[in-house]
Specification:
Layout (H helix, E strand, L loop, with lengths): L7 H7 L2 H7 L19 E5 L5 E4 L3 E2 L7 E2 L8 E6 L6 E6 L5 E6 L9 E4 L4 E5 L1
Antiparallel strand pairs: 1-2, 1-9, 3-4, 4-8, 5-6, 6-7, 7-8
């Protein structure tokens, strides 16, 4: 997969202010406010920054957290993980593997079959109906 590299000025021109804050500045939207936290339609969730396919609606579940949650990424190569020690916590940050955009965090308290919970900001996603 070829990585997308752009200047911050290019990103600012292409993204909405909220998308930029989340994807490029590692922001987090408030729980229960994002566009997709309660979406139940069939489709694919793409990176709002570059269009990379990230999550299938078939792996989406209601985590009760107020953020879109998935028990698996669409493809192991579509996301990258990085240790995050901000705010006095140890977490696993999730990025788009293609453009490096911040998506959210990964936790090990999800449902079967993986036991994982990708807790993702709606502002980092675009939804494409099947």
């Amino acid at each position: 997969m070829e990585k997308i590299k752009k200047s911050e000025e290019e990103w600012k021109k292409e993204l909405t202010p909220e998308q930029y804050r989340i994807l490029r500045e590692k922001g987090t939207e408030r729980a229960f406010t994002g566009e997709y936290w309660d979406t139940h339609e069939d489709g694919i969730y793409l990176c709002a920054g570059c269009g990379q396919e990230l999550f299938d609606s078939q792996t989406k579940f209601d985590s009760g957290t107020g953020w879109p949650s998935y028990y698996a990424a669409l493809d192991e190569q579509s996301v990258e993980e990085q240790r995050d020690i901000s705010f006095g916590m140890i977490r696993t940050e999730v990025h788009c593997a293609q453009c490096g955009g911040h998506l959210g965090h990964l936790f090990n308290d999800g449902p079967n079959p993986t036991g994982m919970r990708y807790c993702i900001n709606s502002g980092s996603l675009k939804f494409q109906k099947k």
